[in-house]
Structures
1.
Amino acid sequence: MVKEIIVLRYGHRPVRDYRVTSHCCLVARAFGADKVEVIGEKDESIENTVNTMNKQWGKGAGVEFFDSWRKRITHYKKKGFTSVHLTMYGLPVQETEQAIRKFNKLLVIIGSQKVEKEVYEMADYNVSVTLQPHSEIAAMAVFLDRLQEGKELAKKFGGAKISIEPVAKGKKVNKK
Amino acid sequence: MVKEIIVLRYGHRPVRDYRVTSHCCLVARAFGADKVEVIGEKDESIENTVNTMNKQWGKGAGVEFFDSWRKRITHYKKKGFTSVHLTMYGLPVQETEQAIRKFNKLLVIIGSQKVEKEVYEMADYNVSVTLQPHSEIAAMAVFLDRLQEGKELAKKFGGAKISIEPVAKGKKVNKK
């Protein structure tokens, strides 16, 4: 059963990629990942967004920037992580999820710009979510939901100052 | 059983929202929606992206721009659609999906900027995908995957010039 999930976002350009990378970080956090690592130029606006979220909405995955994807993948391989690269060229998620669910520690790699060939080679699994081009944000969300069989949807975030009470109409927000 | 899915994207600003709105359109298409309607200023760059995708990768959902979300929601209500607004304030997807799956025609509303109160009132269902702030792209993908119980993952797109043959490593692309 999966106990630890690290998301590695391959590529980030400050300003230009701010919104897409912040969607990636917030989705990883909301869907129960333990940490996000972004390969690219350090971007304080992303760090601030994620830190603010963790302060307000409860403690979830933080974000850290690194220069080399090769070093980070190698680092996690040495620590016993199984690496899953999400790509539309890979094997369908519905055929691979059951096998992947058995590992304890997962490194989930998601691209942005063109991903180098070596990533496909280094990854233990290359997994597709549909065989169509769409969005790394969507692919990661669906993969994490299937991997955890929906258990992540009800995850509680410790130390939250704001929390939501689900309602059929309107908004109900509890503040501490 | 759901037979027709229209995605209504509430809000779009040209240039600034290009990437996020195009992710929304491509995810809706890849996950089997029949059409995307965007409320906002007509944006040819989005139309071109979606049209090119449909020509190259096979016929899926197209996109059309409209001025008034109120008129479009009313239009679909009159045509017998059940409307589902995805919002983190709504009832959890895991508790509502079974009921929603029974309808034939669905209008799935996804926000971007702040959504007006009236949308919450007009929607037949307000549905949350986790109770955390994250991404409308991710919320839509997970909702559409759960709604269709994964059947959309293997959808074939007619008339494709390019298609992918899933492989464990690397890329295998078939071109006509």
2.
Amino acid sequence: MDALLTPAPAAPDPAEPLVDTRPTLRVQRLGMAHPGDLSELAALLDAGALRAADIVAVIGKTEGNGGVNDFTRGYFTQTLMALLAERTGRPAATLLRELPCILSGGTEGVLSPHYVVFARSGRPDASGHEATGPGALGIGTAVSAPLAAQHVGRWAHVRSVADAVRAAMRDAGIARTEDVAFVQVKCPCVTAARAQAAAAAGHTVLTADANRSMATARAAGAFGVAIALGELPDDAGLEAAMLSDFSRFSARASVSSGVEVEANEVIVLGHSPRWQGDLRMGCAPMRDALDLGAVAQALRPLGLTAEPQLSEADAARVAAVFVKCEPDRRGRVRGARHTMLDDTDINAQRHIRGAVGGLVAGVLGDGRIFVSGGAEHQGPDGGGLVAVIARGMT
Amino acid sequence: MDALLTPAPAAPDPAEPLVDTRPTLRVQRLGMAHPGDLSELAALLDAGALRAADIVAVIGKTEGNGGVNDFTRGYFTQTLMALLAERTGRPAATLLRELPCILSGGTEGVLSPHYVVFARSGRPDASGHEATGPGALGIGTAVSAPLAAQHVGRWAHVRSVADAVRAAMRDAGIARTEDVAFVQVKCPCVTAARAQAAAAAGHTVLTADANRSMATARAAGAFGVAIALGELPDDAGLEAAMLSDFSRFSARASVSSGVEVEANEVIVLGHSPRWQGDLRMGCAPMRDALDLGAVAQALRPLGLTAEPQLSEADAARVAAVFVKCEPDRRGRVRGARHTMLDDTDINAQRHIRGAVGGLVAGVLGDGRIFVSGGAEHQGPDGGGLVAVIARGMT
Amino acid sequence: MDALLTPAPAAPDPAEPLVDTRPTLRVQRLGMAHPGDLSELAALLDAGALRAADIVAVIGKTEGNGGVNDFTRGYFTQTLMALLAERTGRPAATLLRELPCILSGGTEGVLSPHYVVFARSGRPDASGHEATGPGALGIGTAVSAPLAAQHVGRWAHVRSVADAVRAAMRDAGIARTEDVAFVQVKCPCVTAARAQAAAAAGHTVLTADANRSMATARAAGAFGVAIALGELPDDAGLEAAMLSDFSRFSARASVSSGVEVEANEVIVLGHSPRWQGDLRMGCAPMRDALDLGAVAQALRPLGLTAEPQLSEADAARVAAVFVKCEPDRRGRVRGARHTMLDDTDINAQRHIRGAVGGLVAGVLGDGRIFVSGGAEHQGPDGGGLVAVIARGMT
Amino acid sequence: MDALLTPAPAAPDPAEPLVDTRPTLRVQRLGMAHPGDLSELAALLDAGALRAADIVAVIGKTEGNGGVNDFTRGYFTQTLMALLAERTGRPAATLLRELPCILSGGTEGVLSPHYVVFARSGRPDASGHEATGPGALGIGTAVSAPLAAQHVGRWAHVRSVADAVRAAMRDAGIARTEDVAFVQVKCPCVTAARAQAAAAAGHTVLTADANRSMATARAAGAFGVAIALGELPDDAGLEAAMLSDFSRFSARASVSSGVEVEANEVIVLGHSPRWQGDLRMGCAPMRDALDLGAVAQALRPLGLTAEPQLSEADAARVAAVFVKCEPDRRGRVRGARHTMLDDTDINAQRHIRGAVGGLVAGVLGDGRIFVSGGAEHQGPDGGGLVAVIARGMT
């Protein structure tokens, strides 16, 4: 990777092949023994196989319950930031603000705790060398300005996310919205403390209920992505559709919300001629929790065919998988009653992650899948979406 | 169906086509609004679409937790027996002893509460008319003599189950073990009260721990089926292999155990020329919790192909699906760590039912699947088996 | 008990002591091995120790989770009604409508599954013999007309409950509101089906969300009791205080709500000179979940002192205990943060029942306590109330 | 506090009052907003109210589930050690080995997440100044040599703990076993990895099952304390009584076990004339989960009387409370059936902590109580023990 960073010679000999200076995206899917175990990443850094300074984002699945009292996310994040602070010499608090680390708790059923590290060997240069051909998968990130509590879940929130998505696209060197494959967003929500501060300043929050606020934030995040990608118009009149008209959605947005952030964190993944490498990404909407065909659809552009399951060789080409899903609000899946929403013992999100996780893992033959609930306006109502990164594409 | 029960005329006119007097199996998959809701069955009985006296077995999935304190099974059984007692005029207590009603609690994820009613229009007659051709799917049931507590989980238990399987095969008119498609067994286990009674009589039970005893009973049930079907030899030396050598298993046994029975209840399903109708059954072992290929294998002999999911027309041909599965004892599925066995919040069996249920439901496009945990010696270690009944076969 | 029912001789000899014909209340606290086990009641009926026709109400604690998917209540109720139908010759469906059977699921911690059977030897006669002196604890029940879905949780609901409480007071022969010791109410709530029917008829329901609707129904029930007992004025303007101003409450109401009823069921317990016997009842509000003093306060009028725990002899005098409680909405108990409302693994009502159950059971030295959550407007905000019936009072 | 550490003058003027150079124990009970929140301790250190170097032990209650997958303990420990490393300049890894940090996860019901910090102003000097009078509560800690996996749960383990208790007594300057008030121990258990290593070296572990191994380790810890305190003889023949004869127990031991330690960590609290200050400690065995009287018994020597609850003034004198308890193995509490051991939804330890926590908190009027399950041989069978530290004793 370091070789790629070597500047091209000032006056290249036209007879020699041009050195390709475009950046490469690295995607490492690593396992963990517990939420505080970053040893696999530490080993890669120790071995020089990865440079801490190249890491731009982490998306992971920890083994908590995925709810308000899931502290595996905080534990992992604290451990990650301490490791990167040690290796980069930058303060952990700064890294925490700048480096998107988006975690989903809950490894129900066959899901396996793991995290995906995104590193890039440089930034795509708009004025630089542009190879012909389709390019490769690249990444860009952005963090918005802190969002005031009274804006959470409202149109100002939608626009804040849309702006951050556009900034992340620029960071990724992706000009066309159709080249964006997948957008991962983390949005702030209203906490009791933030609601009180807003009230003291004369503002009104949409809701002070934490769980409800998280849902409104996810909806705003999804609408923000949809606007930035041209899937929905930037029409403030659509605010009434949020958490109401579920036929409006982004087919490429995966949004989470948490009390621990005050700004919107955005990761854009997409294809661009300004990147090189063998990574590509596919994404498909899931129409419901049984939409096995959506997995096949996401795999198809990657040259991967599950008949019915990926071969071992093809499974080895898969670098990362991301899924959004939800228990159908209407209490039925394809006409058959489900019991997820009425179970006092197991949270509905844990139910749906386990079921859709089993389905997607069955196609891929691998339980290392990021599956996240809370899919409001992220894919079709009662469904969600599935995205896959594969290597070995040329 | 009644017409089939009319005795053939004493001296048939050879010019007339022979009436086919072989019995037919009826398989009805019905939904329920709650564990005490048998209204769909009552409606069928009311409409004369089904005769209460023809019902020989019920296998169902109720929406409890599947554990010791799952009372949805008792609730459903009480309601069923009261309904059938009313309609047949036979005492509920008698029906309870004679009619296998095998329930698995827990409809995690996309699984839908439902029950499968097996009814037959008569018994296959060994001396009667035998059509040429392959015949059809038939059913037989048997209930063993009560099993003394000191025998539970031991070789005497194995033999008791094996004898009951053979009796159920005779009841089904199935002569060849290779024609048996699937055997569902419910075994008694040791309770504290039964352990004390055994001790008072000078006997020793294998274990007085209820959960452990259920596991030993399931193992004995699986070995019993395996012996009856010729999958294992009737060698008492194999007793040491129970719950120890998991390479020994039946590929067609699904066994549960419960405190509510004192005898082994057996349901045999298989193909025989002594049955008519359009039902057939396929069964395949699952090598692990990600074995999507096993579902395809079970569907193949039924002329059903999932590419990757059954078409709506083909899904309509599916009459019932039965799955056995378990969280891998070794803590990994295809090399990736799973967390099912270490989760203090969600029972491991609930985890695995949700995941494998999602996988199988994804292939079939339907959540009405009987998925049961506790798969010791029922299919490969860490896996289990999947069985499908389809109609429309001729 | 039968002797008490013998009519007094037409012309009593003034020299003979007058036979006391006032009715007696019997309170039987019985255990169960599982939610379908009514064997202790059946044994009492078999032995003639209790007459099925005398039973007027049952309040019980079953071992489910207390949530929407707790079917132990339905299982117990079905078993009870079948038993009483068999013993009284009246249809189970009729008994179900007329006999209040109010169950709370969830026996967390030291709580023990049990049920309290209320039987009376006759009805108090307004025109009959009235002994001087304080009388004894008596009971009255009432079932309102079915409540239309659009009224649930509104002032019409409040008035419907208030009327039913007054009817139950008359049934109990209790004239003065201050003689009412405790009122147990079960209210209908809105279900999806009832909401649709109301909408089709041009009506609007307060909320179609089942859990929210149950809360509004409990609030209406508590306000209804408060109005009937003179704790609050019958002022429709108070409708806005429901689920909003928690300083308004009844100190003697215990209300539950369920999808299974369409009318308000009311049980009134109170003291009256028209009853004889040695039963008395005490009731005290709990100011928070740590209010141990409230238990002492409820015991005091019964001549019971816990120093710090009831003696065995005194504990034997306790016939039944009823507790209402709730996790403090504000997230703190006496200034210390609690985690009940943020626990994704255990429902908050299960948390609080276990904790308050442990506290009250500790004072009484007995886990057979009816503890129910959902205490909106039933006792002080964040607290609830505790009521005790004792025998041996003369 | 520093002044106390000033050495006494070599030749004190007999006319001047002697400076009391004996060390003081400080006990700080602090709250936390989440398991990674040590801000209250940091504030005390910032303000100079506490010196990081004086801290010798921490015992805390975090809000996880208390089971194998409770990572709140690891998160808290990592955060604590990072804070103390920063403030003392010593490596976190060293502190982790030397400073006992014993956590119990699970704040069920009214229990409040908190931690107790033990700091001492110096060490008691055996040769130094000895004031007359009763002295005060002091502390000593010890960490044994690492325990080989094959010894876990066996007599060698018992002796290792006993030796560590004696070392901690010496560290505390407590000579007489009757002056020891309470001993908190954390023992290593066998993990799969340690079992394999032991097997490779030709050794046999008692059990490789993690949960079972933790129970054997707690039993060994309890026996070790009992031997060191003279409650049981050091007789290897007693090994058979471990987890078998529950009439053998220590009335002052609280033991936990965890995969994260390889050596036994011991904290001894007791009274000694070599300590000064106003802290005292009481401890009483609980005979069962309803033993309210035990709390009164533990409070009595502290001059605290609950009638029935501590007054606010007296509650303010309580510095820390520690409770051990367990769900009765026999399925009943004072004759009434409990359901803790049969609940597939809620772990039995969570049940019992919530119930006993509610009882003890009710007496104290405060939910900041350390309640831990797994009380094998720690107090009477089916019960446990309760210990209280109070200030304001002179």
